[in-house]
Write a structure and sequence with these properties.
By secondary structure, the chain is mostly helical. The chain has two domains: about 80 residues, no CATH class; about 80 residues, no CATH class. It is about 50% helix and about 0% strand. The protein is built from eight helices and no strands. Helix 6 packs across helix 7. The model has no long low-confidence stretch (mean pLDDT about 85).
Length: about 200
């Protein structure tokens, strides 16, 4: 009796040993037409083994790519699609460019600084007051998420003044939203918690 651990390792284990053996037999067929028919039969079996593959875009192309991989790119047939090359599969992805920007207070993030610049440019009025209110509450929540022990409304007010260079400031009688459960009131997450 031979165990699977003693056998040759499968290239694509999701298809099992039977498909691998079918591909190996297909490689041994000398007649090109017969080999082509065998490959098409293998593709049909692969498609029935995994019915979810039909919902994916370009599923046929993926099956032919997988057949090429299973054969170790040695199967000489007329592929209906251009199969992915071995070099492309093993190629390392290009590193992504990360937008490195200096952030004054990292716990607030880059977008807070962008909004504070906008707040600085806005003329006095209801729009500026509304943006200031939203940003003060957002900054309080960010500070709470970053370090609950360091969360202080006076720090938020001081940071708003620092960001806007004293142009905008949180009023002394400003009522901050509660962040006791980690969510601002009115958010979907806080509503779900109340229902339970």
């Amino acid at each position: 009796m031979t165990y699977n651990t003693q056998r040759e390792k499968l290239i694509l284990p999701e298809y099992g040993r039977i498909i691998q053996e079918m591909v190996d037999l297909c490689l041994e067929i000398e007649d090109r037409e017969e080999r082509q028919q065998c490959a098409e039969s293998i593709i049909a079996v692969m498609a029935t083994m995994n019915p979810n593959v039909h919902q994916q875009p370009d599923y046929e192309h993926k099956l032919w790519d997988q057949l090429a991989i299973l054969s170790g790119y040695r199967l000489e047939i007329d592929y209906p699609f251009e199969v992915v090359k071995a070099e492309d599969i093993n190629a390392r992805p290009k590193p992504l460019k990360y937008p490195m920007q200096r952030i004054r207070y990292r716990h607030y993030g880059h977008f807070t600084e962008e909004f504070m610049r906008k707040l600085k440019e806005l003329p006095e009025g209801s729009e500026r007051e509304e943006l200031l209110s939203m940003m003060a509450n957002y900054m309080k929540r960010s500070l709470y998420n970053w370090n609950r022990d360091a969360m202080d409304e006076r720090k938020v007010a001081a940071d708003v003044e620092s960001y806007t260079e004293g142009i905008a400031s949180v009023p002394e009688n400003f009522h901050y939203a509660s962040v006791a459960n980690g969510h601002l009131p009115g958010s979907n997450a806080s509503k779900k918690k109340r229902k339970r």
